[in-house]
Design a protein that fits this description.
Length: 786
Amino acid sequence: MDRTPEANRIAATKSSSISSSPAVQESPFSNFLSNLSPLNTATTASYTQTLLGTNLPTPPVVFTSPHINLQRETSFLERDDIVEAGSEVYKECNTNIVQIQNPSFEEVQLCSPSGCVDEYLADPVEVDSTWSADLRSQRTNEVPRLLHSGFAPGEESNTEVCDIMFGSPENEAVLLSDQAEKNLPLSSLEMSQAAINQRDGKKTEELSRFIFEKVKESDVNACLVSRAQNCGENAAKVNLHRAGCQYDEKNASSQSREDSNECKQRVQKGFVKEGGQNERGIRRHLQFEAAKAYKFTILGNSESPNSLTHDATNSRSPSILTNLKSLASSHFDNRASSSLQDVSCDTLQFPSSPYESFTSAQIGVNSTTSAPIHSVIGLHLNRISRSTSLSSDIFSSKKSIGYLSMPEQMLEHGSNNIATNSSSILTSAVSGKIYVHVASGQQESQAVTEANSFTFHSTDTMKPPCHSMLVDQETAPCEVGMSASQETDEVEELNQLSPKRKRRRDAYMSEGCKRCNCRRSKCLKLYCECFAAGVYCVDSCACVNCYNKPEFEDTVLDIRQQIEARNPLAFTPKVVDNAIDSSPNFTEEQDLTTPSSARHKRGCNCKKSKCLKRYCECFQAKVGCSSACRCEGCKNTFGVTPEPVYNRAKKWEAHPAEKLDNVKGAIACIKAPAFSSASSSNSAKIPQAQLPSSQLQPSGAHYDIPYDDTPEILEETSNPTKVVRASSPNQKRVSPPQSRSRLRERSPTGLRSGRKFILQAMPSFPPLTPHRNSKEGTNEIENDDK
DNA sequence: GAGTTTGAAACT
DNA sequence: CAGTTTCAAACTC
């Protein structure tokens, strides 16, 4: 791998921590490893069989280690066993159940644009316990051999990663043996029992252990995949099999061999930048975010990602791995740090809508309040939310949609109205998981935005993650939800473009995703549109010395972390939908797709363009300038700055006095549930949207409140007096607060506000704000921090 | 396509 | 944290 001095420098910085496998060993994850219970081989075999086909003569060799074997199993366990077993539990402790969903979807990513995995996922079969039993026996015996069978010699990088995480192959063999001796099977049946126990509040250990184990196993799987990527055909086959791609080769199925080969190629090529353009975008995003999720989560805090980070040289370890780790860590944290009892069953109702799902997410957050809250709150929340959302779907329908992990399926279902169609809801959640896998940055943001867009623009058709690139909205390269009218406008605009611009636009359209032309930023700064959007650069980018590539995953994540440390909102979408708020009169039936309902999160600062050119981010996003803008001579045709705009988005562009009222109301509302939640989880249900926007003191001032800091609002609510502060309409932008972590830590209950809050906080993007009006309140908070 | 303008991001 | 510099997109020629 070519590496520039810059990359080497970065890698060197990390290497020290990377080499410290102790860091891993000391982590909750490693602790978990030390207490592994025997694998659920029966289940594994069953699901594997499902994956490979019921007529497979022999158990798949992919089960090279107890940790490695369950890629498929995990998926099914998530969807079926766990869901079933935990369906009851879910109502009480959805957090634990939820997040194990991730591995399976990561897997989907792995192999999948072509849907080879989808195929598999789409048709689960019953477990063959007999075969499974044989497999268990066989596997135990063959592990030492199998451990090596799938890997070509010399595969250093990822092997190292795997070794760090799980020990050398030899060690794995030993571990397997040890586990076999323990003979403490935790079958799905047992898991079910564990779930029941959990439900009954008797025991959480079994379930937690099981879940964590599954996650861990998935990690190993991911690791193997990574190895395969580096080790050539032989290893690739094994891993393809693991990834579900071998499915076609060994068993006559509905999928063609061509597809299988294609899938294989994708696996060998790292799953990235393969497949369709839209898929590419999705994949880029996924990789990116998954890794991030891991880094921010597995370590338990945002400050220590490097402690577990492997050298950039080994960065090819799939983000999947990291993501899975993240999940594992998350679960572990949940288990270790949260008391499921903390979550009121009353609030953990089975989600019947995205909002419900988000509520669950919120609860999940609550349950982990004792755990460190990542500085990148958006990521954290999003990740959890998405997981929760997905799980919610699964719980709500373990049936078909649980397997709608493919973008194609998203498209297929995207046209459904999410507000009323449970299937759509599920799709949305799934999409969020799939496309996102990642949370607070825009990668996550994008992904989440994807889901959210679908959710909030339910009447619109679910589009591929990058479809909205056509919209050419800087803030949402992959945002969806563009209404038909918007599309029409785009077409018209395109027709009016100069040939050059048309070419560029055409390039966008043909490519489906953003491209950049960075020359000096290495695509590791927000200057880079791709980087800022949370996606990797693609081949079609014209950038120079680009590091925003999967092979520099660690570097990218590192930089992202640094940037987010400076500005937690750096990777959040710049444009938010004001319609997605909880204003008193807001209803889901309202039109959520119109540009006028959106606004630029932080506002523009145009001086010469008069907000009439694409220099202006508001204009570019086709949103009106708001009080958050500090533009001069604004002539934004989508809205005008200082004066309050009483348009259809007037909920946001309210009268200054009203704004202040809204801020206070939001604060009061948030505060109430936040504090009351400690004693009554039901209070969390209080939708902020319903907060009266009337309780406030008027003042002729505008309130420039960054919108997506919902968590902060909660955290700051303890001191309402600080929150509200008048400011001039065009006051200078306020940088994100520097004390977020501190604040966050301060108010563990803050995240327990109502469902609505969750809904908006979860996405690290737009919807982070409790409600449209609360944005202002948030901003005030930030100002106050300053 | 080269050069200029612009404003966000980054830096000091 | 205000001022400056850097950067890349947008724009003009």
